[in-house]
Design a protein that fits this description.
The chain is of the alpha/beta class. The protein has two domains: 176 residues, Aspartate Aminotransferase, domain 1 (Alpha-Beta Complex); 252 residues, Aspartate Aminotransferase, domain 2. Helices cover 39% and strands 14% of the residues. The chain has 15 helices and 14 strands. The structure holds 4'-deoxy-4'-aminopyridoxal-5'-phosphate (PMP). 4'-deoxy-4'-aminopyridoxal-5'-phosphate binds next to helix 6.
């Protein structure tokens, strides 16, 4: 069942010599030959030449269905006409005007109208930058040094929150009171002491831990991980009630979960956090981040009349290309488009369950909005620990086999669907999975 690594790697190498050559070229001048670690995959990364609709073409001219979707950012696919038109019209106005433009308020209004919890908003350049600024914001507002986050949740790459995203089993501590483990070397000394790690879906433990740290805890960061972990809406409501009772700021990471629906994950479960931050689709494919929330909290950033002790800056924040592409993207996500994506999601979800069950491979399929993921285990994926039980070796081989069959995915964020896809693409990837499992 499923070819060996050796067989798959040999086949992949013979199909992608130009990608190999490009990788070799980059090796002397970039660590690992790569611009970022997320692009690494055995036996060498795949280099893309161009994209159109829901397809990508690699340097060897091979065509792929794009289920990676630039880490979920390209919900309209590549070259969406409204995005191209918006960006072309910005090109004519100029690059980097170094002053506010009318687009900012337009985008702020678009987001505040979709998210009732978001009254005011500021723009940044990435999800990472957003969560970094939010951490500072919540410490400044609350006067408390600590923040809490959930084990297995990634909020961006920085010292304030990159803890226990993917801790080793030995370091992670008990599952009901996980230890805070710095994910990387080189993080600020003691950074883990200011981060308290919570287990998904374990109410009693979460309550116990938060009460224990009540006096020093300013905020709880939360990503509902729709389509990636099975976190019932009840748990999110419980967390909202508890943080409110304990006087902690609830921060929602909607960088990926915004795909859950018109008003993001929070709209789909009916929970209003105090602060939210965004990224990915909100920039229509351009680098983006945004921080929003209750006006009384956001107004600490208003230094027009007096200095409130906190400034937020960034040369490229809210640049006109990002805002124009993001606005065009959000406006294109009409109820019809979201229904279309949801229909494809349901078809892929049901099809995957069928295909894995026919092949006798234990598998958990999860989905929400336009994200579908699968974990090769018989345990429900309720938290980071249960996700660890997934057969990573088999998952890796299936991913490579799919790439050979022209199905492009990116690890960690499941299968991400885009507007140009139809039932043909969904049925195509299902057949490819079925073939892969039978080989
Ligand atoms: N939060 C979540 C849930 C993410 O998945 C990511 C990136 N994959 C980030 C934050 C960080 O966003 P960025 O890569 O734009 O810095």
């Amino acid at each position: 069942m499923v070819k060996s690594w050796e067989a798959l790697e040999q086949e992949f190498r013979s199909l992608t010599p130009r990608s190999r050559a490009q990788w070799e070229r980059g090796k002397p001048v970039m660590p690992g030959g790569l611009i970022k670690d997320a692009y690494w995959s055995r036996p060498h990364p795949i280099y893309m030449e161009r994209g159109d609709g829901c397809h990508l073409w690699d340097l060897d001219g091979r065509k792929y269905v794009d289920f990676g979707n630039h880490h979920t950012a390209m919900i309209l696919g590549h070259n969406a006409p409204e995005v191209i038109e918006a960006v072309e019209s910005e090109l004519k106005r100029g690059i980097g005007l170094g002053a506010p433009t009318a687009l900012e308020a337009e985008m702020a209004e678009e987001l505040t109208s979709r998210f009732p919890s978001v009254e005011k908003i500021r723009f940044t350049n990435s999800g990472t930058e957003s969560s970094l600024h939010v951490t500072r914001l919540v410490r400044a507002i609350s006067g408390k040094p600590k923040v809490a986050k959930f084990e297995g949740a990634y909020h961006g790459s920085h010292d304030a929150l990159e803890h226990s995203v993917s801790p080793s089993e030995e370091a992670a501590g008990p599952s009901d009171s996980p230890k805070s483990v710095a994910d990387w070397k080189g993080m600020a000394r003691g950074s883990e002491d200011d981060v308290v790690v919570l287990p998904y879906n374990q109410r009693e433990s979460v309550e116990l831990i938060l009460r224990e740290h009540q006096d020093e805890m300013g905020a709880v960061f939360f990503d509902g991980k729709p389509g990636l972990f099975d976190v019932p809406p009840d748990f999110t409501h419980f967390l909202r009630d508890l943080t409110r009772e304990l006087g902690m700021i609830m921060v929602m990471d909607e960088v990926v979960s915004i795909r859950a629906g018109h008003g993001g994950y929070q709209g789909s479960v009916g929970v209003e956090p105090d602060l939210t931050y965004f990224g990915k689709i909100v920039g229509g494919g351009f680098p983006v981040g945004a921080i929003g929330g209750r006006a009384d909290l956001m107004d600490i950033l208003d230094s027009t009349e007096s200095n409130k002790g906190l400034r937020q800056s960034g040369t490229f924040s809210g640049n006109n290309f990002t805002l124009a592409a993001g606005l065009a993207t959000l406006r294109a996500l009409t109820p019809e488009v979201l229904d279309h994506l949801d229909g494809l999601r349901a078809r892929l979800h049901a099809g995957m369950e069928e295909v894995f069950s026919r092949a006798g491979v234990p598998c958990q399929v999860l989905s929400s909005g336009s994200i579908v993921s699968f974990h090769l285990t018989d345990q429900p994926i309720r938290d980071f620990r249960s996700a660890l039980s997934s057969d990573k070796d088999l998952f890796g081989r299936i991913t490579l086999a799919l790439l050979i069959k022209g199905q492009f995915t990116q690890q960690g964020l499941g299968f991400s669907l885009s507007r140009p896809m139809g039932t043909e693409e969904i049925d195509g990837v299902l057949s490819a999975i079925e073939e892969t499992l039978a080989e």
